């Protein structure tokens, strides 16, 4: 039996899943750019958005930071998200950013299918992550991810534009947003351009934790 297609993202209280892009430099992760004001602004906002996950025991385990870390609702949700995922799909822009910032043992530990216009040989990393580059569209990438995942679920890892393409195509079964208590004012909105006439949501659960609120919805065709 095929698993479900879902996404799980952090979102600011005003609806953004990423800060406003940096336009002053090409590579925000290059050491020589770390003092650029726009890079510092982007990094600061991103850290605020994701601040709920960094202290978790699961986060420390997954990135091999050593023992310790917080347990509780947020840790359970992060662990459940990882354990249900048999394969992931992401857009090329997210991959390009991650290639420069992920550790050598990328934190997915499953096959990852990158939706792109630029082909490339598979990129295998230690720890079970292999990136595959799919040039024939979002449905082809999802088909390959479903096959790789078996009876586990497929996670749409991001970014926001790629997630929205899957939502508008009616290919998402469920999602969770971790609403962080921060305001961006500008950036990448999760549902900017959504075809609301085709999407109906069913609340599944709402779980507050010490730093965020996790909202889960089933997605149906309207």
TrEMBL record:
Transmembrane segments: none annotated. One of its GO terms (biological process) is riboflavin biosynthetic process. Residues 5-212 form the Bacterial bifunctional deaminase-reductase C-terminal domain. It comes from the Bacteria. GO terms for molecular function: 5-amino-6-(5-phosphoribosylamino)uracil reductase activity. InterPro entries: DHFR-like_dom_sf, RibDG_C, Riboflavin_Biosynth_HTPR. It holds the Pfam family RibD_C. Gene3D superfamilies: Dihydrofolate Reductase, subunit A (3.40.430.10). This is Dihydrofolate reductase. It comes from Actinoplanes xinjiangensis.
């Amino acid at each position: 039996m095929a698993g479900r297609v879902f996404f799980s993202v952090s979102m600011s209280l005003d609806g953004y899943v990423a800060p406003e892009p940096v336009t002053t430099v090409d590579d925000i992760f290059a050491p020589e750019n770390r003092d650029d004001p726009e890079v510092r602004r982007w990094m600061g906002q991103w850290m605020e958005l994701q601040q709920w996950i960094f202290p978790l025991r699961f986060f420390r385990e997954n990135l091999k930071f050593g023992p310790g870390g917080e347990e509780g609702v947020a840790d359970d949700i992060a662990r459940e998200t990882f354990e249900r995922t048999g394969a992931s799909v992401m857009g090329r822009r997210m991959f390009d950013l991650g290639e420069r910032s992920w550790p050598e043992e990328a934190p997915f530990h499953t096959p990852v299918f990158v939706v792109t216009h630029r082909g490339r040989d598979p990129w295998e990393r230690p720890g079970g992550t292999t990136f595959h580059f799919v040039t024939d569209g979002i449905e082809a990438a999802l088909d390959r991810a479903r096959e790789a995942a078996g009876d586990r679920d497929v996670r749409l890892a991001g970014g926001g534009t790629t997630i929205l393409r899957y939502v508008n195509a009616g290919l998402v079964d469920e999602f969770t947003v971790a609403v962080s208590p921060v305001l961006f004012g500008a950036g990448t909105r999760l549902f900017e351009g959504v075809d609301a006439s085709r999407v109906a949501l069913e609340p599944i659960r709402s779980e507050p934790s010490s730093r965020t609120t996790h909202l889960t919805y089933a997605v149906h065709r309207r």
